[in-house]
């Protein structure tokens, strides 16, 4: 097919859009691939849609190759199935809720486990019907708190979601492995660097789960790796419980530490006024910091706004609580900052000097208190004495205080020991591109999806769920494939195979360029032909070609008089002259076609 720039629905922009944070996103907007309709909501223009369709095609091909069948569910859904699984409330503000004219609650689907599960329940009754794998490429809605970087985190986005249905765990493992292999093929083809990491299954429930993260400094996810090949999202890192240590500290003692509401001021004051007996200087790691948050639980009948529960988290003073690790630990509740009003409601909390003396469900505050697992039993700490301007020293865990449990919420840092025992962890960032997990029977149980097994007994079907962010993939590919002047698409997903530029005024130039376009089209090559005449200078056309990013550019210009055209590699910038008569063959060789 030949698409002509003179009629293509596109207006490239020379200026960066004001609201674009990341370079790939800026270029997608400037080159006329996408347009913002509202925060987190994007329109796909012809160029963008071509790329999107190519990504979808790769995904379809690999999903079909493992025997998954495509279908399509509506985005507008009834509430009842989501109520049955608890997600009507668990999804909280992320769910787009709508009310129809009869006042019935409905939702715009954020993901479709419920609908697939119910369809299989309606249609299948026997183990003989299984295993089954189904998928769709479909628009999802999530009212994300922070839509970001254009199509990377949208409130409307396209997801490929698949689901597997098996009679037992062994079957589920097979379906999971098939998806894992398919995902490797898909992401190898899409053209960005990625890692497979252990993941937390979050609000979805279930057990085994892995994420495919595109490696990117701009990613919102942080993952760890160690020398043994272990890789995990920080959300899923399980810091081992520190083994108990022998108590060496003397009795706990309260000391005056005026004006030390922060760890930094406390450490300075300790070193100045309370030097350690062993001669070592105090560091933040010797202190126990007690962080308060308010958990807001999903709404229920008694708490239409959600029950609010204070929670105290004890972490070594050299670490912060990691918001994302905390989020997965407390889900479906949401952690909010502990406000002045919350302190006012708890006068026993001396802000800046809070300690285990008052914390704990059975203690004076009644506030649940969870400790970081690195806090060993027998270890001694400096922590708040629950009185303004005072701290307690040599407070020993297990001897002088206890907590209600542990929580995996402290930040993970570069150099931390790996949970596998093989050396230290390194940290990097990524964008979640795909997520595969073994749901097990959670949804099938909630919705009553059972089939008869070989013995005629009803058994609950076990499910897997597998997602890929399709629109997000286009965003990530753009972030990974561009330079200062424009996009540079990988061959498999470029909107066109070749971009022909008619550079000059002479009619013979347009005639030759048009002829090359037609001959390439006849060979099955997708051609973008810049046939714009009149005021559009060759300079403008070159700039547009560089911005749009088709990997092969064919320039028909001055050289035509000598019988040559110029073939340019957009990625390397290399140019070479080719005789006009060889141009079609040269382009086909360049694009790797066998056409
Ligand atoms: P994230 O942690 O980035 O919010 P998630 O854990 O909510 O992702 P899933 O529910 O597993 O994501 O959805 C499957 C896939 O859909 C993700 O791996 C991601 O590629 C994509 N995705 C999720 N949310 C969005 C979004 N708001 N915009 C674009 N793509 C998304
Ligand atoms: Mg999400």
Termini, distance in Å? 14 Å
Strand content: 25-35%
Bound molecules: adenosine-5'-triphosphate, magnesium ion
Integer-rounded radius of gyration: 30 Å
Q: Determine the structural class based on helices, strands and strand pairing.
A: alpha+beta
**Contiguous helical run count:** 14
Q: How would the global form be characterised? A: globular
Question: Quick check: average pLDDT?
Answer: 95
Helix content bin: 10-25%
Q: Give the low-pLDDT segments.
A: 202-206
Q: Main beta sheet: strand number and arrangement?
A: 9 strands, mixed
Question: Could you tell me the number of beta strands?
Answer: 32
What would your notes on this structure say?
There is one protein chain. By secondary structure, the chain is α+β, with helices and mostly antiparallel strands. Helix content is 25%, strand content 28%. The strands form eight sheets. Strands 4, 8, 9, 10, 11, 12, 13, 22 and 25 form a nine-stranded mixed β-sheet that branches. The longest helix is centred in the N-terminal third of the chain and has 22 residues. The protein has 14 helices and 32 strands. It binds adenosine-5'-triphosphate and magnesium ion.
């Amino acid at each position: 097919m030949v698409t002509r720039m003179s009629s293509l629905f596109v207006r490239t922009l020379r200026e960066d859009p004001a609201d674009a944070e990341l370079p790939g996103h800026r270029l997608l907007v400037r080159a006329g691939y996408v347009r913002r309709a509202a925060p987190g909501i994007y329109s796909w223009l012809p160029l963008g849609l071509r790329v999107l369709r190519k990504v979808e095609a790769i995904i379809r091909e690999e999903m079909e190759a493992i025997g998954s069948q495509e279908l399509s569910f509506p985005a507008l859904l009834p509430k009842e199935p989501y109520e049955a699984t608890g997600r009507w409330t668990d999804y909280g503000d992320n769910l787009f809720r709508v009310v129809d004219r009869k006042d019935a609650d409905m939702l715009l689907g954020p993901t479709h486990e419920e609908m697939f599960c119910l369809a299989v329940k309606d249609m299948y009754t026997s183990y003989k019907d299984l295993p089954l794998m189904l998928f769709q490429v479909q628009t999802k809605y999530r009212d994300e708190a922070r839509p970001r970087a254009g199509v990377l985190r949208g409130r409307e986005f396209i997801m490929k979601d698949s689901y597997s249905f098996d009679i037992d765990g062994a079957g589920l493992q097979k379906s999971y492995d098939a998806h894992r292999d398919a995902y490797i093929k898909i992401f190898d083809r899409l053209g960005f660097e990625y890692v497979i990491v252990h993941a937390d299954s979050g609000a979805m429930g279930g057990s085994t789960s892995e994420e495919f993260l595109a490696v990117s400094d701009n990613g919102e996810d942080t993952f760890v790796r160690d020398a043994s090949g272990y890789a995990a999202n920080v959300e899923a890192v399980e810091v081992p419980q520190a083994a108990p240590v022998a108590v060496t500290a003397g009795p706990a003692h309260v000391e005056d530490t005026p004006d030390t509401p922060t760890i930094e001021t406390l450490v300075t004051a300790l070193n100045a006024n309370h030097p350690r007996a062993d001669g070592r200087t105090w560091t933040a790691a010797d202190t126990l910091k007690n962080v308060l948050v308010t958990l807001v639980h999903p709404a229920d009948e008694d708490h239409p706004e959600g029950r609010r529960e204070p929670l105290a988290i004890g972490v070594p003073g050299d670490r912060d609580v990691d918001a994302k690790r905390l989020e997965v630990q407390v889900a479906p509740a949401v952690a909010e900052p502990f406000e002045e009003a919350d302190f006012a409601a708890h006068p026993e909390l001396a802000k800046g000097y809070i300690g285990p003396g008052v914390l704990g469900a059975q203690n004076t505050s009644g506030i649940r208190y969870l400790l970081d697992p690195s806090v060993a039993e027998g270890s001694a700490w400096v922590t708040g004495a629950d009185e303004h301007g005072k701290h307690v020293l040599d407070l020993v865990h297990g001897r002088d205080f206890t907590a209600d449990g542990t929580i995996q919420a402290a930040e993970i840092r570069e150099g931390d020991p790996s949970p596998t025992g093989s050396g230290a962890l390194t940290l990097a960032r990524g964008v979640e591109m795909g997520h595969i997990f073994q749901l097990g029977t959670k949804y099938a149980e909630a919705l009553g999806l059972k089939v008869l097994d070989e013995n005629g007994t009803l058994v609950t079907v076990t499910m897997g769920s597998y997602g890929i962010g399709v629109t997000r993939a286009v965003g990530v590919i753009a972030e990974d494939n561009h330079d200062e002047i424009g996009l540079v698409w990988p061959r498999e997903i470029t909107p066109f195979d070749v971009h022909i530029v008619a550079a000059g005024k002479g009619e013979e130039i347009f005639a030759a360029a048009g002829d090359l376009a037609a001959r390439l089209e006849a060979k099955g090559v997708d051609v973008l032909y810049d046939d714009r005449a009149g005021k559009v200078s060759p300079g403008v056309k070159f700039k547009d070609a560089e911005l749009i990013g088709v990997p092969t550019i064919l320039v028909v210009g001055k050289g035509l008089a000598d019988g040559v055209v110029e073939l340019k590699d957009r990625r390397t910038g290399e140019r070479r002259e080719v005789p006009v008569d060889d141009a079609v063959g040269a382009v086909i060789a360049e694009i790797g076609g066998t056409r």
